[in-house]
Amino acid sequence: MTRQTLRWIGLAACALFGASLLTAQQSFQERQMGGIGITVFRDENFRGVNATFRRDVPDLRQYGLNDRITSLRVAPGEFWEACESANYQGRCQVFSGEERDLRRSGWTDKISSLRRVRGGGGGFPPPAPPPFGKFGIVLYDDPFFRGNSLSVKEPVENLRSRNFHDRAESVRVVSGTWELCAEPRFRHCQTVNRDTPHLSSLGLNKRLSSVRPVGYGQGGGPNPPPYPGLRPRLVLYDGERYLGRSLTLDAASGNLFGFAGRARSLQVVSGTWLVCERPRFAGRCEQFSSNVPDLDRFGLGGRVMSARPVEGAPILRH
Question: Rounded to whole angstroms, how far apart are CA atoms 207 and 147?
Answer without folding.
Answer: 17
